[in-house]
Write a sequence for this structure.
C-alpha cells in the first residue's frame, strides 16, 4: 500500500493535467443552489419557516385564494383598495371598534339556497348573512327547512345536513331581517332573488344592486356579471372557488359598492331616515302652511270663487244687452204660468209648429 502511494504520476496523467490546466483563471466554480422562500412568506433572519410564523395578512378566507401578483393598489374614489381587499378576506375582524359594529345606514345581504321539490330544482333559503358598511357581521343564521331537502347543493352552498340541527325557524329569521332593513340602504348582488327567498320587499330607491349598477356604468360588458368576476377584476382576489360563504359574498358586494359609491350615487338623492320623514309629514312641523291653507279655504266658495271678489261677468252682460236684462227681470217677477205670453214682446216672436 505504501509503495503505491509513493508512486509518481504517469506521463499520461501529466500530459492530461497540462491539457486541462486546472489552475486556469477561467475555470468554472461550483454554484450553490438555494431554495428561495415563497413570495408571500417574508421571513427575517433567525426565524423558522414553520406555518406558525405566517403573519395574519397571509391568512385568507376558506373559500378564497390569496391575492395574485400585480393586483390593483392605491386609492380610488376615496377608498383604499387594499383595505377593502382585507375586508373581503376577513382580516379586519379584530380591528372593529364598537362604532364600526353598529348597523349604520348601509347593509349588504347574501343568501345560500338548498334544493327542494321535484328533483330539488326549487330553491329554498338555507343561510342568510348581513354585514354593515365596514364588513362587520350583523346576522348569520342557518334557516330551518319547512320542506324535505332533496339537494343540499353543498359544493356551492356549503350547507350540510348536520348544519340543520341548530337552525332557526324561517319566521323568526324573516322578522330579524325585516327589522334590520327598516330605513336602510340595502346593497346586494342580484338582491331581488334574495328578497324573493325571504318573502320580503324593500323600496326600490333604497336598493343598490351591484349587478345592475355594474352593467349600467359599464363596469362589465355582460348584463348579468358574476360576483366572483367583479371581485377578481376590482381587487385581484378570487372568491367562490369552492363552497360559497354568504358572509364573504356579502363583504365582497359591499366592497364593490364602496369602491364605486361616489360615481353610482352622483345626482341621486338618498331617501331620508325614518325620523326625518316623520318630522316632514307631521302637521305640527308646518304651522304656517296649514294656516294659509285654512284661511284660503274659509274664503273659497263652492263654485271656485272667493268672497268679496267680483268676476265682472254680470256687469259686462248688462252693458252688452241692457234690454234683455230688463225683460229677464220682468219675466222673473211674473207668475210661472204666464211666462209664454211675454216671449213675443222682445225682438222676434214665438213660432209653434
Amino acid at each position: 500500500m505504501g509503495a503505491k502511494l509513493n508512486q509518481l504520476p504517469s506521463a499520461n496523467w501529466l500530459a492530461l493535467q497540462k491539457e486541462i490546466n486546472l489552475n486556469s483563471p477561467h475555470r468554472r466554480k461550483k454554484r450553490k443552489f438555494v431554495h428561495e422562500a415563497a413570495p408571500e412568506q417574508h421571513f427575517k433572519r433567525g426565524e423558522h419557516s414553520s406555518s406558525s410564523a405566517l403573519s395574519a395578512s397571509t391568512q385568507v378566507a376558506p373559500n378564497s385564494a390569496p391575492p395574485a401578483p400585480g393586483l390593483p393598489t392605491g386609492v380610488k374614489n376615496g377608498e383604499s383598495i387594499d383595505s377593502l381587499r382585507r375586508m373581503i378576506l376577513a382580516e379586519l375582524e379584530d380591528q372593529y371598534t364598537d362604532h364600526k359594529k353598529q348597523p349604520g345606514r348601509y347593509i349588504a345581504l347574501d343568501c345560500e339556497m338548498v334544493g327542494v321539490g321535484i328533483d330539488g330544482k326549487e330553491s329554498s333559503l338555507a343561510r342568510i348573512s348581513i354585514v354593515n358598511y365596514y364588513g362587520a357581521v350583523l346576522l348569520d343564521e342557518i334557516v330551518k327547512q319547512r320542506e324535505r331537502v332533496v339537494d343540499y347543493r353543498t359544493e356551492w352552498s356549503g350547507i350540510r345536513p348536520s348544519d340543520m340541527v341548530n337552525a332557526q325557524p324561517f319566521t323568526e329569521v324573516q322578522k330579524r331581517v325585516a327589522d334590520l332593513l327598516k330605513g336602510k340602504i340595502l346593497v346586494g348582488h342580484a338582491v331581488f332573488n334574495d328578497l324573493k327567498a325571504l318573502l320580503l320587499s324593500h323600496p326600490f330607491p333604497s336598493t343598490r344592486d351591484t349587478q345592475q349598477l355594474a352593467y349600467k356604468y359599464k363596469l362589465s360588458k355582460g348584463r348579468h356579471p358574476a360576483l366572483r368576476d367583479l371581485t377578481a377584476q376590482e381587487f385581484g382576489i378570487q372568491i367562490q372557488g369552492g363552497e360559497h360563504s354568504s358572509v364573504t359574498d356579502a363583504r365582497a358586494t359591499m366592497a364593490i359598492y364602496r369602491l364605486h359609491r361616489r360615481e353610482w350615487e352622483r345626482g341621486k338623492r338618498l331617501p331620508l331616515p325614518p325620523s326625518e320623514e316623520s318630522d316632514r309629514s307631521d302637521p305640527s312641523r308646518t304651522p304656517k302652511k296649514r294656516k294659509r291653507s285654512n284661511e284660503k279655504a274659509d274664503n273659497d266658495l263652492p263654485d271656485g270663487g272667493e268672497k268679496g271678489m267680483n268676476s265682472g261677468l254680470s256687469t259686462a252682460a248688462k252693458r252688452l244687452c241692457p234690454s234683455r236684462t230688463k225683460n229677464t227681470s220682468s219675466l222673473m217677477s211674473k207668475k210661472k204660468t204666464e211666462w209664454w205670453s211675454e216671449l213675443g214682446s222682445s225682438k222676434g216672436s214665438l213660432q209653434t209648429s
